[in-house]
Please model this.
Amino acid sequence: MNNDKRKIIIFDDDEDILSICNYILEEQGWEVHTFTDCNGITDRVAAIMPDVILMDNWIPDSGGIIATQTLKKVNDLKNIPVIYFSANSDIQLLADHAGAETYLAKPFDLQELERVINTVI
Model:
């Protein structure tokens, strides 16, 4: 087993979700980075170069759709899979519009979280 931990960034302004996801994913050996807004997103993501990104729909300031679209316009970042997550009933449409690889509806259980992450990495 190599020491290169898989890295994940979670963009969500809900501290409870961040702490739960952080705890679960660290237990599974992920290196977890969390942000409560998506300002300066390309610089943040480029500095970490995660294996996967979890993106909340209602992330300040610009929102998950614009944040995801911004990442997908950058050559070095566009291939990082984005999992769009939201309690919105139109989540599939939102994820498609954003250009995300897949989506996860809130509330979600931990099996779903693992399953969705495993589908994109």
About this structure: The helical segments are 15-27, 41-48, 64-72, 91-98, 110-120. The first helix runs from residue 15 to 27.
